[in-house]
Amino acid sequence: MLKRVHFPTSLLPYLLVAPQVIITLVFFVWPASQAVYQSFLIEDAFGISTEFVWFENFIYLATDEQYLDSFGRTIFFSVCVAVLSMSAALILAGFADRIVRGATTYRTLLIWPYAVAPVLAGALWVFMFNPTLGIFPYLLEFVGVDWNHYLNGSQAMMLVIFAAAWKQIAYNFLFYLAAMQSIPRSLIEAAAIDGAGPLRRFRDHIFPLVSPTTFFLLVINAVYAFFDTFGIIHAVTQGGPANATTILVYKVFNDGFVGLDLGGSAAQSVILMILVIAMTVVQFRYVERKVEY
Amino acid sequence: MIENRPILNIVSHVVLIFGVLIVALPIWITFVAATHDPVRMTQAPIPMLPGGYFWENFKQTLFGGGLSGTETAPVWRMLLNSLFMALMISFGKIAISLLSAFAIVYFKFPFRMGFFWLIFITLMLPVEVRILPTFEVVADLGMLNSYWGLSIPLIASATATFMFRQVFLTIPDEMLESARIDGAGPMRFFWDILIPLSRTNIAALFVILFIYGWNQYLWPLLITTETDMTTIVMSIKQMLEAAEQSPQWNIIMMTALLAMIPPVFVVVAMQRLFVQGLTETDK
């Protein structure tokens, strides 16, 4: 934590941490405490008077069917995004790990979607699935599927899941490939000598050995799906149709900036903060455990 | 290579090429859309092979009014805004994180751990969960529609501070001892020893932060109301909305292409640093 040898106490260290600390206080701690404070208030329709109501906003949320639906939807969305992009990445990494020549070329060709902004990813997918022009609705018509994510809630959900998972494959692939390449070759060779085929080795050796990475990626993907996918939802569906894709982050934004329900939005913010803190704690505990290996 | 299985090797390549194609498909369609004239882009099915309008679309998007019928800033202006924002965020984050990591590792002072935990908090509060109150703070400070408002609230960073702390901890104590014997003060040590020693880490972090800054969406969306301050990533959404009235997909997709080229170029060109940065900051 601290160097054995260090500089004597003076004013200097305070000056050094000052920029970071001031920004943290002004733009993180103060707004967050404001959110907590506002979550205990109810403002009347004209914004004239506010009333301190303790946990009423939270109780309202806990009984609000729309909010609970949104909660369930967010979890469904996150699970789908994580499973879809992680399994795709695992399969690709498994094959890339086998290849002697060209593995880095494949890596280059697979990692760049990481650099595409979520809202752009959304724009690309919404264009591909545009009901009148897009290439996929055109192809789907041949198999009798009528695609219109502006009207059909489950199709809208599928579309945002695809877009979100597509963007995340790069990240997952990178971590899986790195994990697989760090497995000692002798281990895999020993298994091969004992007669285990490639599929058997993947199932019984490689997959269990990369399980710490799987766990780490689960947390990262959950955080990604919960918070970073705002742009995708905003560009592709705006939470619709009929709230079918309104995930929690989108709802905070919508209720706060469009609906101007300050107390309700603040209460949702507080719940989200608790969720992030929980996820961060899980992530850090995992990191600590990993150090012991 | 464990054993020679030619068929499995072929299968591996086939699967990987298939994966690459799926990953690249949206970009291919975007590129193709950006090379056709507007009339062709209103006829279903949309083309799958490039047309001959790339330069026309490029010029119209970059220097023309962009999408007709909407009031947006010229695209070159938005690209510049994005560049300023991304650079300010990445340099700002690196600078303040280096300084605070230096203070926390090399000085013993009261409340050292308190500051450390205070910085840690930023990790737990992404902008998405405290949108409204942060917006109010920035509005009260009069930073709406400015580069300062776009970048400063985002430059506090726990991950960067942690990473530099980790880097500094691996630097042998003898470095500091000998520097002090030679009469170097703290800032001299910082500039002449710590910064050069962590050069690759700084570069790796820069790659990640540039992408992070360039791709900001929700934050610029909230605090820029003047068209002159919009960033390229934000503009896509406005164009998609306009597209519902008058679809000009060739221009929209050209804009999307221009918006993703800088960060994608950074990732591909600096792949080694990118991978290093990604694995260091997230663990």
Automatic annotation (TrEMBL), chain A:
Protein's UniProt keywords contain Membrane: yes
Membrane topology category: Multi-pass membrane protein
GO biological process: transmembrane transport
The ABC transmembrane type-1 domain, residue ranges: 71-283
Principal location: membrane
The organism's place on the tree of life at top rank: Bacteria
Swiss-Prot/TrEMBL keywords: Cell inner membrane, Cell membrane, Membrane, Transmembrane, Transmembrane helix, Transport
InterPro entries xrefs: MetI-like, MetI-like_sf, UgpAE/MalFG_permease
PROSITE patterns, per the entry: ABC_TM1 (PS50928)
Gene Ontology CC entries for this record: plasma membrane
Pfam families with a match to the protein in the record: BPD_transp_1 (PF00528)
Segments crossing the lipid bilayer: 12-30, 75-96, 108-136, 156-178, 206-227, 266-287
Keyword Cell inner membrane: yes
Record's subcellular location: Cell inner membrane; Cell membrane
Protein family membership: Belongs to the binding-protein-dependent transport system permease family.
Task of the protein: Part of the ABC transporter complex UgpBAEC involved in sn-glycerol-3-phosphate (G3P) import. Probably responsible for the translocation of the substrate across the membrane.
Xref: NCBIfam families: PRK10561.1 (NF007852)
Protein name (Swiss-Prot/TrEMBL): sn-glycerol-3-phosphate transport system permease protein UgpA
Upper classification of the organism: Bacteria, Pseudomonadati, Pseudomonadota, Alphaproteobacteria, Rhodobacterales
TrEMBL record, chain B:
Membrane topology type: Multi-pass membrane protein
Main subcellular location: membrane
Membrane-crossing segments per the record: 7-31, 83-107, 114-135, 147-168, 189-212, 249-270
Stored InterPro entries: MetI-like, MetI-like_sf
Pfam families, per database record: BPD_transp_1 (PF00528)
Recorded GO CC terms: plasma membrane
UniProt function note: Part of the ABC transporter complex UgpBAEC involved in sn-glycerol-3-phosphate (G3P) import. Probably responsible for the translocation of the substrate across the membrane.
Family the entry assigns: Belongs to the binding-protein-dependent transport system permease family.
Identification of the protein by name: sn-glycerol-3-phosphate transport system permease protein UgpE
Lineage: Bacteria, Pseudomonadati, Pseudomonadota, Alphaproteobacteria, Rhodobacterales
